[in-house]
Every structure is written in structure tokens, then in C-alpha cells.
Amino acid sequence: MPGSKKTATGVLGGLAGLVGLSAVAGVLVTATVTPAIAVSGAAASSAITMFDNMPSYLEIDELMLPTEIYATASDGTEVQLARFYDQNRLPVTYEQINPVVYDAILSSEDPRYYDHGGVDLIGTSRAVISNVQGGATQGGSSISQQYVKNVLVQRCERDAPTTEDLQACWVEATTASGMDGIERKLQEMRYAIAMEQRYSKNEILLGYLNIANFGGTNYGVEAAAQYYFGTSSANLSLGQAATLAGMVQNPNTFRIDRPESESNGAANGYQLTLDRRNYVLGRMLADGKISQEQYDAAYAEPIAPNIVPSTQGCENAGGSAFFCDYVRTIVETDEAFGETPEERQAALRRGGLKIYTTIDLDLQKAAEDAISIVPATHPNLDLGSSGVQLEVSTGRVLSMVQNRPYTQDADKAANDPAFTSVNFNTPYINGGSNGFLPGSTYKVFTLLNWLEHGHSVNEVLNGRQRNFTVMADCDGGTQRITSNQIKNFQGVGGYNGTPMRFTADSLNTGFLAMSEKVSVCDTNKIAERMGVELANGGSVTETNFVYDILGSKAIAPIDMAGAYATIANKGIYCEPKAIDRVIDADGNELPLPQTTCNRVLDESVAATAAFTLEGVINGGSAGSSRTNDGVPVFGKTGIHEQIHTWMDGASSKVATVVWVGNVKGEVRLDRNSANGRALWTIRHSIWPVMQRAANAKYGGDDFPRPDQNLTRQVFIDLPSVVGQSVDQARATLQAAGFSVNVGDAVDASESAGTIVRQDPGAGRVSGATVVTIYPSNGEGASIPGGLVGQTQEAAASSLRSAGFGNVSAQCTENEDAPENGRVTGVSPGEGTSTNRNTAVTLSVERREC
Q1: Is 724 left (phi over 0), alpha (psi -120 to 50) or beta?
Q2: pLDDT tens digits for 486-509?
Q3: Are 204 and 71 in contact (CB under 8 A)?
């Protein structure tokens, strides 16, 4: 407030302002309604000259309006998810306001409104006198001038880059005392007169009622009516209309939403507002706008607020809150909504946009129900869970859920573990999450790498627990992994098998074997092509380590959903998309954030990958997630050290990804449960429910048939292992990519354990062939040759020398036989390998037996 003592110069300056302002008002205002009056004097001339040099036209900016985010229900109804605003405003038309509001505002603020040309000479003169005396403007501004001031204040709020700039601009637009106040009043007059030449009285009055502040963040009479009284401006009573009309003089003093206030609260009946309301009623009575009876009835009414808070932000979106928040982050970060962060923030909070989103409320509800089995808190770990679904052919986000309710209250999120503001489904930029380790769901990229290099899913590899030399770098560098560094789930030792079986069983050592032929670098490049990046915004190709193939990098679930959708979409990757339409405050459709669909995989590779992943659902490690509804689906499980668990998959229409794990920490899921379910398996109680809901609404087709070349049987050389020991033979065959069975020991003269036979024998065979090897028992011998034709005694001696002790003869008489007889046959036959204890029978011919 200015000091009470005025210098001579100040007083004279004020008087000069008074004379000049009165002269300007007389010439430029009353001339529009009364005969011109003559003015003279230096002060008047100076003021008129200054007035003439001021800008005469004020562009009426668009109102600062809330931005609204919508979802579309199945019946086409638009469901509002959230509003964001700096000013809670609901513009209405002239006819949507009860006429009693106009009467109240005019009687109290500008009773001669329809008689002057923008400036009320009487009121203006009164204001200047008050200014000269050191006071503030009191009732001196017409409705047109107040509208001008509100337009200028809103422009400050819209354009000021900093809080300091905003304050300076606001002071300039609202200064009411001293010479600055007089100069501002002159400019207001200039603008108001020009405005009345451009717009009708009703248009200006409506504009004022839509822009004026009514306390706090409530702007415009409709928002004020809804907030303070729980009704519309069309249905305001006389007392309510007078209360709101009284507020505009000093909104934050007369607001009635602070019942605890000592000066103007419930305890004293909102005395300040009550007095102001009654003043308004008195002015209406004096102006003949209401009868004495109406005045008495309204005067007798107490101030009775019915506060209906106009909340903003995504907390109002219920279970869809995290999706809503995802949309908010897109508006704040995508250049479709402005080139700078400030422009984008203004679009969100002031732009009056209507944003129509992709979320499917049917799938969202099913997903919310499905994930509700995961509690918001757990006594033993920081338990989190999320689910996200994408439309395969477009990337549209259809559902997004997690186990903890959303809060935008930072203190609540920090202190109550049952709530969070972090979106588990999205990368850091879209919700504050650092992502989670995807485990074996990342193996899909090694499978795709394998196929892109022309390998068949039916090629046999040595997937046993062993030392591996994995191709890591794109320049040919390798990393050696010993047998004790990476093991298989539940201690499985591995086997010789195919990528088809490795994928179904999620065999770690099988994928290490594949990565001895295709590099980890290429695997990560494929992931990047399919939209996968580190949740912190980094590239998955920045480093390439052998552990990457097992999902050692922190990824957002929505990125994994995009990748699996790409396979279902025949190799075409569609960036996740959350917004279908954006409409500005004037009803114009605006450009959307740019999302594209591009081919990143050959169709044959995608088809063969889908075929392989179907085996994971049908008989493989994801069998517990079967939907059993007849719609073809594929999927892949993932577990990282029992800290994070995943289930990723898709139909030909919708991809679904579910994560359950530690938000922070490394507590083992397999040692904890919730709602009667082991935590490491609970994903299989969520994923099929979500996917079945998608299948029921969107259907699903058969996936394309796999490429014949990428599913071909691969023939390789089978080496001979005859003569090797059992261990040597097994190692030789396994190293060559064959599975081995050891048959029963056979009678052979070779030392016990020596392989004497294999089935099949050496040569070109299918890589899927199982080779059976037969070791010697060390108790065999071969029937000597040349026994036929010898005498019985000589043949028997040869057999005994060969180790056969059980020799007998069968004699046949033949008069032509030699005198000493001869051997005509032997059983078993000559050259036969048999046990030494085998009975050998000689057939002998003699003249007499």
C-alpha cells in the first residue's frame, strides 16, 4: 500500500491524471451516448495524446482450458479418464447461464453496462479520485474493462517463461494505484472501447463470465457453480448467483471452500462472503431486478456450500490410471504437442485438448481382475506385477495394469508401499521405471538370429552342460563360458537336441550352443530392430555379453510386448500407440504423435519363429498358460534367478506380456507365495485370463506355415566309434551333435567295454538320429575258419585253441569218406563271434561212426 503522506508533486500528478482521464472519458466515452462535452487544459491534451498513442486493439486469446483424456466403451460411449488444468474452466454459451447470474453481476459490478460504450464515466471518475487519495480502484472498471484485464492476466499466465516473469506481468496488468495505475486504466479504456466496437454486449458479458476467477483454480461461472454448489450455472438459485457474483471482486477472500477459516469460515457463517452476497442482493433490489419478497427470502438464506471437488490427474482413472499416466507422459515428451517442454506442458494443462486413447475398456477390466490376485504388498519382498496388451497389427495399447494402485501424491508413494506412481510397464521416460530383467523371454531374439542365418530349428546341437565358446562381438570376438557358470532350470544337465526342443524346454545350454554359431551382437541388433531398448533409454547393442542371450538387460514389458507382436504380425513391427485422435478446443483434429509400422523380419523367419513358439505353449514350458479356447497362440516363459518371472505371447491379433517379480531387491519368488499361489508360477494365472479376454473379443487366425528350409532335417556325418571305449565313443558322437544310447554288452573277443558295433553305422545321417553303441563283454571269441575238411581231432584242437571248450560232434556214415573221416560243417559257423562257453557242434562224415 502507498504511504499516507503525499508530496505536492504526487498530488498534482494525480490531479493531472484525474483531469486527463476525465477528459478522455468525457470525449471518448460519453460521446457515444450523450452530446460531446468540451475539455481543455494541458493535462487533458496530454492525456488524450497518450491515449491516442496506445494500442487500440486487443486480440482475445483462446481461453485456458483443461485437457481431457478419454477412452471409448464398447457401445461407443466416451468415458473421461482424467482432466489436467491450471485453470478449472467449463465454458458455456449465453443461453446455458441462468439470467439471474447476469442480473447479479451487472447490478454489483456495472449497472450502466448496456448504456455506456465500454467505459463507465461515473465509475471511472470515482476510481481516479480514489487513486489520487492513495486508495485502490473501487468499482471503477466496467465489465468490458474487467474482461480486458482478465484477458491480459491470462496472457501473462500463458506466456511468462518463469514465475518471476509471471509475477511482474501480473503486477503490470493489475496495478491499480499511482500513475502506473492511471496509465493502465487508460489502456484498459482504450481496449474496452475498441472491444465494444467489435463484439456485442452479450458476447463481452459471456466472455467475462467464462474467463473470470472465482477463487483458487476455479475459473468461469460454470466451474464455480459445479464446485461450490454442485449444480450448473443454468440452475443456480438467486442466493447462489449473488454469492458467485460477489466473489469476482476478491475471489480468494470470498471463496467458500475453506470452512476452517477464522475470518470467513463455517464457524461464522462465511461472514465476509455473506456480507458481500447481501450487498449484491441489495443492488439487485435497488435496480428492480428482484422483488422485495425475493430479496427477503434470499437474504434469509445462510451460505450453504456443497463443495464438489474438481479433481485432476490420473488418480481419477481407477484401474486405468497407469495407462492414463502413460498418455500424459506422451503429451509431455512428444513434439507433436509442442517443440519445447514448456509448450507441451501448456498443451496439457491449458490447451483444451480432447485426447481419445486406444485403451479397450473390456480388456482393461479383464486385466484388472486377472492381476488382482497379486497383492499390493507382501511381507517378505517388494512385490510387483504388471500386464500389458497390444493390438498386433497396429501397436495400439489395449490394456495396461499392475498390482499396486496409482497415486500422484509423491509423499504417499514414498511412505505407503501399497501405492506407487511408477509405471512398471513402461520405460523410465514414460513412468519412472528402470525396467526388469526379462530372463528367457529374451531367448526369442537368439531364435530369430538363428533363423536369419538360415539355420533350421531341426538342426541338432550339443546342448549339454559343458564349456562353451560363444560368439559375442560382431567383429568375431568370443567369450568362453565354463560348465559351472550357466546352468539349466532345476539342474537339468542338458542334451543333444534341436532349437525347436531347446525353445520348448527353455534350455539355457541349448541357446549357448546356438550362440556358438550366431553372435550375441546380432541377437541384440534384432531386439533393437523390434523396438526393444534399455528401460533407461540406452541401446541394447551398446554392450554384448554372453549373459544377454538369457535376458540380463533391464527392459520395459511394453517393449517385449512390441517384439512378440512383431512375430505375430508376420515380421512387421508397429511402435506402441496410445492415442487415436486429438481434437483442439475449436474442434479441429490435430496431428498425432508419429508411430510407424515397418517390416523388420522376413516373413518366413517370423512364421517359423511363431511355429517354434507354439511348441512352448503346446507341450513346452508354458503349458500352464494354455488358453484352451481354440484360438492359436504362442508364447515364451522367462525366469531370471527366481527374482523376475515373465510370460510373453500372442495370438495373431493381440500380444500379452505379464511380469511378476521384485520391484527392488532380490528375494526368491520360489520361496514365497500369495493367495495360495507360488509367486514364481502366478504369471500363469494372469496371462491366460488376459489372453482369453483378447481372444474372445478379437479372435485369432492360424499362424502362417513355417518355412520348409528353416524346418528341414539337417544331414551330418556320423563317425565310426568301433574300437573306442564307451566314454570315448559317447563324447565323440555327442560332439558331432548326436544323442547316444548304450546297448547291452555283446559277446566279442575285444576287451570288455570296447565298442564292437554301432547302429546306424558311419555315414551321412539326419542330425536327429540317435546312435546306439554296443560294447564288448570281453567273453567272446570267433569260430576259427578252415575247420571244414579237417579231421575231427584236428578241428576240435583248433576250437580248443580258440577258447571253445564245449565241442561235440555229430557223425554221419559215408562209405566215400576218408579213412580218418572229415568235418563237413560247424555250428555256429566259421567266423562267428560268440561266447566262449557256447556249445560248438562239428558235423563229421566217417565210413563207420
Answers
A1: beta
A2: 888 877 888 989 999 999 999 999
A3: no
Burial grade of 120 (CB within 10 A; 0-12, 13-18, 19 or more) = buried
* pLDDT tens profile 54-91: 666 788 989 999 999 999 999 999 999 999 999 999 99
Of 576, 550, 678, 566, the residue nearest 613 (C-alpha): 566
**Residues 432, 478: contact at Cβ < 8 Å?**
no
Tell me the three state secondary structure of residue 622: coil
CB 281 within 8 A of CB 299: yes
pLDDT at residue number 156: 86
Q: Is the CA virtual torsion 746, 752, 756, 758 positive or negative?
A: positive
Which is it for strands 807-813 and 840-846: parallel, antiparallel or unpaired? Answer: parallel
β-strand 673-674 against 739-742: which pairing, if any? unpaired
Q: What is the pLDDT of residues 243-271, one digit of tens each?
A: 999 999 999 999 999 999 999 999 999 99
Half-sphere exposure of 233 toward its Cβ, with a 13 Å CA cutoff? 24
Spatial distance between the Cα atoms of 222 and 230, rounded to a whole number of angstroms: 10
Q: How far apart are CA 698 and CA 678, in angstroms?
A: 31
Grid cell 450487498 in the structure block, residue: 279
Q: What is the pLDDT of residue 127?
A: 59
Q: CA torsion 329→334→340→346, rounded to 10°? A: -50
Distance between CA atoms of residues 110 and 96, nearest Å: 21
CA 803 to chain centre: 81
